[in-house]
Amino acid sequence: MTERFVVVGAGTMGLGIGYVAAGAGHPVELVEVDRDRGAAAMTRLADLWDRGVRRGKLTVAQAAANQERVTLRAGLAEVAAEPQVIVEAVPERLDLKRAVLAEAEALHPALLGSNTSSIPIAELAEGLTRPERFCGLHFFNPVWAMALLEIVVGSATASETTAAAVTLATRLGKDPVVVRDMPGFATSRLGVALGLEAIRMVADGVADPADIDKAMVLGYRHPVGPLELTDLVGLDVRLDIARTLQAAYGDRFAPPPLLVEMVAAGRLGKKSGQGFYHWADGVRSGGTAQSEAGDGTPGGASADRTGTAR
Ligand code: NAD
Fold this sequence. Notes:
Blueprint: E1 5-8, H1 12-23, E2 28-31, H2 35-54, H3 60-68, E3 70-73, E4 85-88, H4 94-105, E5 111-114, H5 121-125, E6 134-139, E7 148-153, H6 159-171, E8 175-180, H7 188-204, H8 209-220, H9 226-233, H10 235-249, H11 257-264, E9 278-280, E10 283-285, H12 289-293
Parallel strand pairs: 1-2, 1-4, 2-3, 4-5, 5-6, 7-8
Antiparallel strand pairs: 6-7, 9-10
Bound molecules: nicotinamide-adenine-dinucleotide.
Residues 8-14, 31-34, 37, 89-92, 96, 100, 115-117, 140-141, 233-234, 237, 241, 309-310 line the site of nicotinamide-adenine-dinucleotide.
């Protein structure tokens, strides 16, 4: 059964969600307010499908059909009413997400989800007229490679909505967990705690980023170290999440000054070319934990297959 998908925000996550939904055969409207980012997302999608063709996973016709299923929209006003699914994937800011969700709800989707990494669903749902149809749909980065979908059930979320989200996960080839609505849910709270401590260790001069990452990769069998993961997620994204968690749980989640400084300097990780590592054409340069140790999966390291993330 094909369902009409609307994905709001064509950044790291919206692009990935659109890719997976279109690849599963669903028509996707990708809504992006930034014209350049929207165009870049469409180009990136075409590149990803071309790569599938080169690897023998898709035929040329399938790649073309996938791309054709995706339509770029400049705003929700351009989207027809009553899609089956709307997933919001705009930056992690409460006011922005609330505004987008209110506009999205007016289109009467059967299921409305937020890809938030840390903001409580109850807070996002304030102001919605049908909060029972709303839940967290927390995908992981890169969406095409990460099996997990964390479904976050708010106090007003109907059991039918949770069931629909679980069905959706399966249709998209994802493996769901259903979690209670607490800031940071089950995943970000733990993952960000590790990332923030690793950044404090860099600031304390404990070791180079590459050696801190290598310690976790080799010593704890993490597929990717906490600093490289921070680069993959985006330092700005992690800073937003840390601030949300700080407001909820106190100063144990206070963002380290080094993180704040790096974001202010535009060192956002992979997407800006510089974070704890240098990135060129989406690939990390320099020999570090990942390139020396592999990513723990057969076939060796790949920046696009590693990660988990928020
Ligand atoms: P991003 O900054 O890469 O992309 C967000 C996009 O939303 C941008 O392209 C921006 O122009 C667009 N946007 C802003 N306002 C908009 C609007 N009103 N309508 C349409 N588009 C709009 O951010 P991201 O990394 O993709 O994160 C998006 C969400 O997903 C956040 O809530 C984040 O916490 C969460 N998340 C991120 C990751 C990750 O690894 N980056 C993983 C899981 C969840």
